[in-house]
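From the pipeline queue, job 12 of 40. The input is one protein chain; the requested action is below.

Action: predict structure.
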Amino acid sequence: MKLMKTENAAGHVLCHDITQIIHGVSKGPVFRKGHIIETKDIPVLLSVGKEHVYIWENNENMLHENDAAVILRDICMGTNMHGGSPKEGKIELIADCDGLLTVDTERLKAVNSLGEMMIATRHGGFTVHAGDVLAGTRIIPLIIDRQTMVKAKKTAGTKPLLDVIPFKKKKAGIVTTGSEVFYHRIADTFTPVIKDKLAEFGAVTARHVTLSDDPAAITDAIRSMFDQGMDMVFCTGGMSVDPDDQTPLAIRNTGASAVSYGAPVLPGAMFLLAYTGDGRPVAGLPGCVMYARRTIFDLILPYLMADVPVTAEKLAALGEGGLCLNCSVCTFPNCGFGK
């Protein structure tokens, strides 16, 4: 690559895109990489502020920004996504299906820490839809040493940094607890909320029972639902520390292994999650899920629908960003909640 005065560049090959920005109208390339500069192009180049241009000189030790962006794309690109074509040195990754985006945060940080290159992604752990842009990759200079990109590949390792895990078709059971609901003293306004949130992911609520605060009956209902083929079971109500709140005890008595009782998320601190021996989740949902627009349930449900195990470490990490601000206009997930 050689820097040349624009007035003298006719007949030479551009080695980068030339961008034109018209305020409030457009932003895009007026000339692409590989364009052979003609005499008539010189006034256009000068009009976009290019007193000098870089022309291509072959150097096998260096990589052009487009070629380097392809390497970064391949470092990132996991399942259920595809990469676009290079544009002004940048390549975007696009989701091929609805699912849970996962990002290897530590390896992403390691690659970005090398300098001279960048990978910008969405936050992992959230729902993406087919056609969504997941990430963009590019190098910072116009050309980069080939060995630097070899180092980037070595740093990233052999596993892609990103994956989209498709949501599964699941059957759910709901155990509604509380004597006030069981004896029809108040209407059940909790179960419809859970059904609606499950329906957003295509899950079917196949079993539903309403019980009083009887831990033995709740335990039997959970076990029965799993015996009947439910992929997951949700218990509503009875999740506080009051003596008559028996749902946590009932879940433990099923034999499921508890991941955590409590999560550093507001709303949702009294959340309980456990897994059966064959990996099916059973969750105790605190009362806030019934009335708050977004809670711990919205952060965890995509993982459950994608069959990605939720660990105690994952729940603990939700503390930073785990405070919902209850905005007057909710923009979740395009906000800081859970990030």
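Job complete. The longest strand covers residues 204-211.
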